[in-house]
Amino acid sequence: MLLNVDSDSNGQRLDNFLVKMIKNIPKPRIYRMVRTGEVRINSRRVRAFTKVYQGDLVRVPPLSGMTIGGSRLESAHDDYIKRLTNKNISIVFEDESMVVLDKPSGISVHGVKEKRLGLLELMQTSRRDASLKLCHRLDKDTSGLLVISKKRSFLLNIQKQLKNGEVNKKYLAICLLDSDSTEIPAEVRKPLLRTYDCDGNRLVTISKKGKYALTKLREVERVLHKDLGLISFIECIPTTGRTHQIRVHLSSLGLPILGDKKYCEQVLDKGLVERMFLHAWKLSFRKSGMDRKVHYESPLPAAFKKVLKRM
Fold first, then answer.
1. Which of 77, 88, 89, 277 is the most buried (most CB within 10 A)?
2. Does the CA dihedral 68-73-74-80 come out positive or negative?
3. Model confidence over 202-221: pLDDT tens digits?
4. CA of 31: how far to CAs of 13, 27, 37, 170, 257, in Å?
5. Who contacts 69 (Cβ-Cβ below 8 Å, separation ≥6)?
6. Smallest Cα–Cα separation from 298: which of 130, 144, 193?
7. Are residues 103 and 197 in the same domain?
8. Distance (Å, rounded) from C-alpha 46 to C-alpha 34?
């Protein structure tokens, strides 16, 4: 059986191409086919990491039960998926190459345990489309704009822009203040090191051994809150995209984000703080073939409005 590589798969690794195209066959069996030489590209023996290009002919053995093309992911019952989808997926914009979602706080972008659905798996399952891919990530408790690609060409384009710092992101955060004399700098330049705590959970610290990280800050408002004390409403622009960057940078200034269980030492009443108050507010980037950037914005969540009303 021959598979023709189209433009959307151009430059993709062979193993990823096969997993995308071949259905009803376990992934270990697909890798074994490559390893034993049952898979050939243009009649040549290849390895799993070999890249395929538009026009290549990939030969695979005709295995029993194998289907090619569209797939249906195995998951929970359809009614359960429908309820989760209605609760968690809000589409800001969609076209033939991407979907821009308004992610709620409290759901991971990617499932981390077997049978646990993240936002990506939920999209793939509800749409019966395993080719949907994350373009970037948000922490589980961060809300706001998240881009999912529908085409590999778009994914490669946006990843290149992210690497080159051409994607503009703006976040909003509500932070706790120890003192009204605390000054908020225009930017934070502190290297970040990814490590793990004693329980094996990911933790990011400021360290000379870490990677360069820059976050620009602008205080929007500072007010004495009725229940929480002194708080600050801050606009954050991460010019680098390190794990937990905004959270760690703000915490290092004595400005922990309200509701951040990992980097805020102050324990607050759960009735007052129902989530972490970090929101991916604005996002802009260039679509393929366009000179001007496209701009997207997520409205301020109800939980933010509730806290700000009590300022």
1. 277
2. negative
3. 899 999 999 999 999 999 99
4. 12, 6, 10, 41, 45
5. 21, 23
6. 144
7. no
8. 7
- Give the residue among 92, 257, 291 at the shortest CA–CA distance from 176: 257
What are 13-49's pLDDT values in tens digits? 999 999 888 877 888 888 999 999 999 998 788 999 9
Catalytic residue among 56, 102, 139, 260: 139
The yes-or-no verdict on residue 265 having pLDDT over 80 is no
Task: Give which of 35, 2, 24 is closest to 15, Cα–Cα.
Answer: 35
pLDDT in tens, 124-137: 878 878 788 999 99
User: What is the pTM (predicted TM-score) of this model?
Assistant: 0.74
**Cα(250)–Cα(248) distance, integer angstroms:** 6
Range of the domain at 62: 2-68
Q: Is 141 a catalytic residue?
A: no
Q: What is the pLDDT of residue 150?
A: 94
Domain boundary among 158, 187, 211: 158
Do the strands 40-41 and 44-45 form a parallel or antiparallel pair, or are they unpaired?
Answer: antiparallel
CATH number at residue 8: 3.10.290.10
